Amino acid sequence: MTDNTILGGPPxxxxxxxxxxxxxxxxxxxxxxxGDLETAVHRSRLYSLLSLGFDRPGDDFAAAREDxxxxxxxxxxxxxxxxxxxxxxxxxxxxLEGADHQALHGQWASLFGVEEGVTVSPYxxxxxxxxxxxxxxxxxxxxGFYEAFGLSIDxxxxxxxxxxxxxxxxLSHLSHREAALRMDGDDEGIEVVVxxxxxxxxxHLGRWYWRFADEVGDHDDGDSGFYAALAELLAxxxxxxxxxxxxxxxxxxxxxxxxxxxxxxxxxxxxxxGGCGVDAGGPGDLEPGPVPDVDPAAxxxxxSDFDPDVGGDG
Amino acid sequence: xxxxxNWQLGREVEYPYEGARPDDQWAAVFDLNKCIAxxxxxxxxxxxWTHEEGQEHMFWNNVETKPYGSHPVGWDQRTLDDMxxxxxxxxxxxxxxxxxxxxxVDWDDPxxxxxxxxxxxxxxxxxxxxxxxxxxxxxxxxxxxxxTMESISHFDEETHPVWFFYLPRICNHCTYAACAGSxxxxxxxxxxxxxxxxxxxxxxxxxxxxxxxxxxxxxxxNPAESISQxxxxxxxxxxxxxxxxxxxxxxxxxxxxxxxxPPEEADDSDPMEEPTNPxxxxxxxxxxxKPLYPQFGLEPNVYxxxxxxxxxxxxxxxxxxxxxxxxxxxxxxxxxDEPELEGLFKLMGSTEWSITxxxxxxDEAVGYYEGDEVGRVPITEPxxxxxxxDEDEEVYRLDIT
Lengths: 314, 401
Fold this sequence. Notes:
The complex is a heterodimer.
Chain A: H1 11-18, H2 37-54, H3 59-66, H4 69-81, H5 83-97, H6 101-112, H7 124-127, H8 132-148, H9 164-184, H10 187-219, H11 226-244, H12 263-266, H13 296-300
Helix pairs in contact in A: 2-4, 2-9, 2-11, 4-5, 5-11, 9-10, 10-11
Chain B: E1 3-6, E2 11-14, E3 26-31, H1 40-49, E4 62-66, H2 75-83, H3 114-117, E5 145-146, E6 162-163, E7 165-169, H4 178-182, E8 188-190, E9 197-199, H5 209-213, E10 219-222, E11 227-230, H6 235-238, H7 245-248, E12 255-259, H8 278-285, E13 290-291, E14 302-305, H9 312-319, H10 323-334, H11 339-347, E15 357-361, E16 364-369, E17 372-378, E18 389-390, E19 395-396
Parallel strand pairs in B: 3-14
Antiparallel strand pairs in B: 1-2, 3-12, 4-7, 5-6, 8-9, 10-11, 13-14, 15-16, 16-17, 18-19
C-alpha cells in the first residue's frame, strides 16, 4: 500500500506483481491407480453386501439369504480380494448359516435400532471429536462426495448421509464405476474414481471403522454373532484398502467424551454447557479402549482380534 | 499529517493512514426497539462462517444485554476507561480523544507508522482480550439495571426506571478501521467497491495487533489456524444483492442492509416523491439511527435506532449526541406522524435483498435493489374484525381480530 491507504484489494494478490512468481509446484508423478478390473468388481460387490447387511433386515436381505446367494457372493468376492478378508467373510457366512430372520431382526434392532436407543451408532459424526456444531461440515463433505458423482439419498430414506450403509454403498458405487472404466480403458476416469475412493476412505470411513467394529463386537450378544462378524469384515476390508491405497487416516479418538469447547482456549470450565453438541456425545457407557496405534501390550488387552495397525497383505 | 475527516465526530481525527472513502460503503440500520435477543442472527452467522475448530469462541455476530452484558468481557467499558472521559460540544463536535489520539502518538512521524513499529496496539487505547474474556458470550444476559423490580411495578414514565436492552453487534466495517490501521503487515484492507473490511488470511502473520486495536473486538484470533478472522459482511451475498445471513435470518426484522454516503454526498431526496437511499434517509435526513460508540473515532457503519425506554445519559454515551431527538422521532413514527419512516421500517426484514432505495407509493412502501423492485409492504397492515357471535355456527368467538 504505497499510497498509505487502507483501501484496496487483498495484499497477497497485490504481491504477485511485485514479487517474482514462485515456481509452480511440480505435478506429482502420475502413478497408475492400484487395482484391476476383477478386484474392482468384487470390491464393489463386497461393499454392496456390507451395506445390505448393515441395513435393517428387510425383504431384500431375506431373499438374498434364503437362496444362499448372500453367503456365496460374500465368500467369492472376498476370496478374490485378499486372504484376511476371505477369512473374515467366511466367519460372516458361518454366522449367517444358523441365523433366522426373526433373530437377526431382533439383534439388529438391539444394536442399531431406536428400539433400544441406538446402542451402537452407525453414524460417522458420532465418532468424530468435538461438538456437533463443528462436525456438520463433515456431513456436508460426505454429501459433496455423493453429489459429485450424481448420487443422492432416496426421498423415502430418512437416515443421515453419514450412515455406514450409505458410506459403503457409495464405495461400492465408486468401485463399480472403476470396473466399468477399466473395461473402457478410460485411464483418466479410473484416476478420478480411485482418487475419490482414496479421499473418501481417508477422510471418512477410514477414520472410524475400527471404533465401529469394536463397538459392534462389544455389544453383539446375539447367538449368531453375525453383526460382530460383519463389522470385522468391514474392518478387514477397509484396513486392506488403507494399506493398498497407502492412506493415512486421522484416527478418531477412542474416548467417547465430547470436547465441548476448544480446551486450549477454554480449559475445563469451558465445557459442560452442552448447548451446542451434547447429542454428539457418542454411544453412552462405553468402556474406553486403547488408542489404535499404541503399544502391542494394550492391543492384546483389547479382547478383539481386530488390529487396525495390521494391514492386509495387499 | 494523516488526519481524516470523521463526520460522526464533526472534526478531523488522527489515523495512521490517509482518509479515502470506498465507492460505496456497506452499512446497516439495527432497530434496537425490536430486538428480542433470540440469537438467530448469532447462529445464522456461526453455522455459516465460524463452525470450525479454532473458532469456538468466535462470534462475528453476537447479541448482548446492555448495560451489564458484554462479549468479550467488558469490551466497551474497558476501552472507554482506557480512553479517558471525553465531552461532546454543543455543536455535536467530539472534544475528547479517540482511540488513536488517547496515547498522544504522533502519527505523522514515519517511525510511528504501524508498519514500522509493528506494535500499534500499544499506541492505541484499548486492551487485548484474553481467553477468559472470550469465555462468557452470554454474560449479564437479561440482567436489569436501575431500580429493583416488584411484581406490582408499573412504568408510567417514558424512560423506564428498570431497564435493559439488547445490543446485536457485528463488525462495523469502519471507514477508519482500527484493525486495518494497526496491522503491521498490512494484511487487512477495506474493499474499494463496497467498504467491507477484510483480513487477507494468506497475508496474516498473527501479530495480533488487530485483536487489541479493534475497540469492538471483532477481529478475533483463531488459535487453530494461527490467523485472525473477522466478519466479512457476507460479501459473497451482498455482491449478488442479497442481505447478509444475520440480516436475512433476523426474526424480529430489526435489520436493514444498504449503503451509506457521507453527509455532504447524502441522498436528500424525498421518498414520497422518488426512490431514496434508505441509509441516508434514516441516518442523515432523519438522524434516527446512530453509530455505536462514535467517540472511538473509527466512523463505524452499523447504525442503531436507540431503545426509547432506556435512560438517555447511557444512550448518549453509547451512541453520541442526538439520542433524545432520535427517540422523539421514533415516537412520532409510532404515532403515525412519520409515514416515510414507518413505511421503511415495515420494509425491514420483508425481503432477503439489500435495499438501495425505497419510496412511498400511496399506502405502500416499496424497496428497490439497484432499480429493481424487491419488496412492497402496506404501511398499515389491513385488519379485519369478525362478529363475536357466529350465527351460522352458533358459537361465540374469542378471537375476532
